Amino acid sequence: MKESRSISRRELGQMAAIGMGAALLPGHARSEDQALPAYARRADAAVSVTGVPRGAPADETTRAVRAAALAVTDFGWLSRGDTVLIKPACNSGNVYPATTDPVAVHAMIGLLREHGAGRVIVADMAGVQFLRFHRDGLSGSTRELMNQNGLARAAAEAGGEVYGFEEAGWDAFFEDDPMTAGAWKAPVMLPSILREVDHIVLMPRVARHILAGSTLGLKAAVGWWRHDSRLEYHRDAGTFAEKTADANTVRAVTDRQRLVLSSATRLLTTFGPDMGHVAEPETGIVFASTDIVAHDMISLAWLIENRAGMNPAERDGIIDDPNTSDTIANLMNKVVTNWLGGFGEALRAERLRRHDLNRLEDDRVLARAWATTGRPGLAVVDPDGSLPAAIRTQLVARTS
Length: 400
Known about the structure:
The protein has helices at 9-18, 58-72, 102-114, 142-149, 151-158, 227-235, 240-246, 251-254, 292-308, 312-316, 326-341, 343-348, 364-373, 389-395, and strands spanning 44-53, 84-88, 120-124, 132-134, 137-139, 161-164, 173-176, 188-191, 199-203, 207-209, 213-215, 257-264, 267-268, 278-279, 283-289, 377-381. By secondary structure, it is of the alpha/beta class. It has a single domain (36-395), classed as Rossmann fold (3-Layer(aba) Sandwich), CATH 3.40.50.
């Protein structure tokens, strides 16, 4: 099945009008007196993988979510009555895999309830192409997008609720500094609801991304940020990858994030983040870890493997997959900067360098995370052999 969209001449003209314009700045080492986030304090990280046959009923995805989660956590961190925030990837109103799988969210809410959770909130803030958020105004609604893509219905049917971070207003955000210093000039602005929840379960998706190369667990952090933080992120694009990784070390998140789980029975292998070629492997996977970096190593390897199985003309064509072009990635980033801060900010935007996507080491977000918080050894729990041999080769890691 294929869902794709070509860039129109009008859109290319608009991008060119904003301007075509930086070398990637070197990473900054973590200060020795700063505490590492919890996920970086382990030499080895378990990642569980459960297969789901193509075309299987929703019950199979539910089974896989439960199996993958329970293989890496006993939910001992969850006390009766605790509030859990499920953070999906709700960039748009487009359906899975452009956004997180609603079936998986439904299953996770049920699992959390079984283990004593009180309030379960499914919350995010959508992409700027669908939601404009400024001190003096707001247009668009994450809640409405969740109604469109099925996340709201899944949450309601499982006994959860939905929330858009923008709903509380501009001042309902607080500052937090990444523990890995250097890439961010200003503190990251996070939604105040983070201070009201006990735990976070991150549920991203697996997709190509025209600016970031891929959108997996670490990239999902953008959904937390107020739009002034997103403006710095896009305008100061020389450290785009570093800021992506570093923002995952803010204490408000690392102190609460217990589990990262993705349903990847379908994935976007071109374009992204909102549209592209939809790959449906013969055996899809659901995978989970308590370590976001370990999770993303599996996630990226899965994306690379499924792109390798595509027709080269679909995978590498500049219209079907414009990620292959430095020029288009840079122009699109200027468009986003314009949406966030206006024409003047777009003219000031640093050059964004596209991401290759051939091996794990090509990913500059992962590279930054490895450099600052360590590269975890992986203990892959895959009782059914759902991971292809090529992915195990990509991971170059211990399996068990």
